[in-house]
Amino acid sequence: MFTRIVWLVLRKDLMVEIRSLEIAYTTIFFAVSCVLVFAFALVQEGRAPTDGAAGILWIAIAFSGTLALGRTFERERQAETLKALLLAPAARPAIYVGKLLGIIGLMAVTEIVLVPLVSLFFQAPFFTRPLWLAAVLLSGTIGFAAVGTLFAAMLVRARTRDVLLPVLLYPITVPVIIAGVRATAALLQPDLDAGIIQFWVALLVCFDVVFVTLALWTFEPVMTD
Asked: Domain limits of the chain?
């Protein structure tokens, strides 16, 4: 039953987004604009700054992810969809997991566009180690989205939600972003140190477990209040 509810919530979000592509277009456009601003500001005479690609990639992921979170739950508020989900005879943690997977999917689509773009403008060899890169991006995205989904749902009825979301989200997710930056920077080194990357990925996985567990534990009382 839990899995079925997760799938129904996820399918609903996917169908709505596929029909409109509103959030996907907005998020991708914002992320690309962010990378272009950094490229025009930092790339001089075709030479990109050393070790800047990892930080710029994760800044774009964090900013675009925040936009996706805000727009997703704003749409839910306008249509009263979230209220209907909470009134349904469904487990609240399952609703959270369905929403979380939808946000992760949106961020993953954005990252598919971002990674080649950052690699092109900042001459970063991201694709020399694709499996490690996928592990870093996935684990970092889950940690960021786990906290963001909880806070965005919690603030859906607040008038100042657009201001409060980043104020609450970034201090909590700074460790995830730092670990993602360090792991990505390690991937770009000429001599790959697998031990360092394993350490950062393991740290990201620990953050994921902690954040998802706490969100599942607190989602029902937070949404009830």
From this structure: 2-224
pLDDT for position 154: 84
Amino acid (one-letter) located at 46: G
pTM to 2 decimal places: 0.90
Distance CA 151, CA 168 (A): 7
CB-based contact 143:103 (threshold 8 Å): no
Three-class SS state of 104 = helix
Nearest to 203 by CA among 147, 139, 145, 141: 139
96 neighbors 150 (Cβ within 8 angstroms):
yes
Tokens matching residue 174? 């700074």
Residue among 212, 60, 36, 204 at smallest CA distance from 132 = 204
Helix (H, G, I), strand (E, B) or coil at 47: strand
| Amino acid letter for position 189 | Q
Q: Which residues contact 155 (CB under 8 A, 6 or more apart)?
A: 73, 161, 164, 165, 168
Q: Which of 98, 93, 133 is nearest to 8 (CA)?
A: 98
- Is the pLDDT confidence value at 194 over 70? yes
Give the relative orientation of helices 92-121 and 53-79 as an angle to the nearest 10 degrees.
140
Q: What would the pLDDT profile of 37-95 be if each residue is shown by its tens digit?
A: 988 888 777 677 767 889 999 999 999 999 988 888 777 776 667 777 777 777 788 88
pLDDT digits over 126-155, tens only?
Answer: 888 889 999 999 999 999 999 999 998 888
Quote the CA–CA distance of 2 and 92 in Å, as a whole number. Answer: 10
